[in-house]
UniProtKB/TrEMBL annotation:
One of the Pfam families matching this protein, by short name: IBR
GO biological process per UniProt: protein ubiquitination
Reactions it catalyzes: [E2 ubiquitin-conjugating enzyme]-S-ubiquitinyl-L-cysteine + [acceptor protein]-L-lysine = [E2 ubiquitin-conjugating enzyme]-L-cysteine + [acceptor protein]-N(6)-ubiquitinyl-L-lysine
GO molecular function: ligase activity; ubiquitin protein ligase activity; zinc ion binding
Name recorded for this polypeptide: RBR-type E3 ubiquitin transferase
EC primary class: transferase
Keyword field contains Zinc-finger: yes
């Protein structure tokens, strides 16, 4: 894609690009966004560990539960999309989640989000956490939605 842009972009546009590193980063980010948007939502699985969150594709293999993230090399459950629950089968894990009750889980999540100063994406309502960098955020589920992380 980079070669195509360099070949066909008008000289005016090429001359206005501040640096080749920045340009390459924009192209890489654009390609990543295109790739991510091409995957059907129900096939997307993200590594559940907050310092990783690598996008993986669920290729539809039934019965596959234990999955190792190729980036952080930690185990997680591909069915439940949570860190690996070795002591319980998926059904047991799901039942134990239901036993706690949705409202109780929502309250605990809200309290954790408040304690950790997480914020919700205004579009998809997924909690986000700023780990470093500027306050500019991109929604990973709804392409082209950006927002500013409000520092508290």
């Amino acid at each position: 894609m980079l070669a195509w842009i360099l070949e066909f972009a008008p000289p005016k546009i090429l001359g206005s690009i501040p640096s080749s590193k920045l340009f390459k980063k924009v192209v890489v980010d654009w390609e990543s966004a295109i790739y991510e948007s091409s995957i059907v939502l129900r096939q997307k699985i993200y590594c559940p560990y907050k310092n990783c969150s690598l996008l993986l594709v669920n290729d539809g293999l039934e019965g596959v539960t234990s999955c190792e993230c190729p980036s952080c090399h930690r185990l997680f459950c591909a069915q439940c999309e949570v860190p690996w629950h070795a002591d319980k089968k998926c059904r047991q894990f799901q039942k134990s989640k239901k036993v706690l009750g949705e409202k109780q889980l929502d309250k605990k999540l809200a309290q954790l989000a408040k304690t950790e100063m997480w914020q919700k994406c205004p579009r998809c309502s997924i909690h986000v956490e700023k780990t470093l960098g500027c306050d500019f955020m991109k929604c990973r589920f709804i392409i082209f939605i950006n927002f500013t992380y409000k520092s508290i």
